[in-house]
Amino acid sequence: MADKEQEKSQIEQLDEETLFIVSQTFKALGDPTRIRILHLLAHKEHSVNEIAENLSLLQSTVSHQLRFLKNLRLVKYRREGTTLYYSMDDEHVMNVLEQTIYHAQHH
Question: The whole model's pTM is what?
Fold first, then answer.
């Protein structure tokens, strides 16, 4: 019985770092522009300019949002010459996003 109580206690307790990361992830997914960017990147990598063109956004807006997403390790980039190509970096969060989009479209 003590093992079950200890296990339950471990499940209920979240450390501050975990709480912060989870809340920031949901913050990222709570912004329509970031959702649009992540949804685009879920399918293939794009440069900042391609993202801006595809989503009719300013390049500075895209760069700002990508920096936020990169800090949360939701996107990553690779450099080719002077161009940065962004792609998804967290399949778990992308799965949550895609399932939520599917849910919204098929309720």
Answer: 0.82
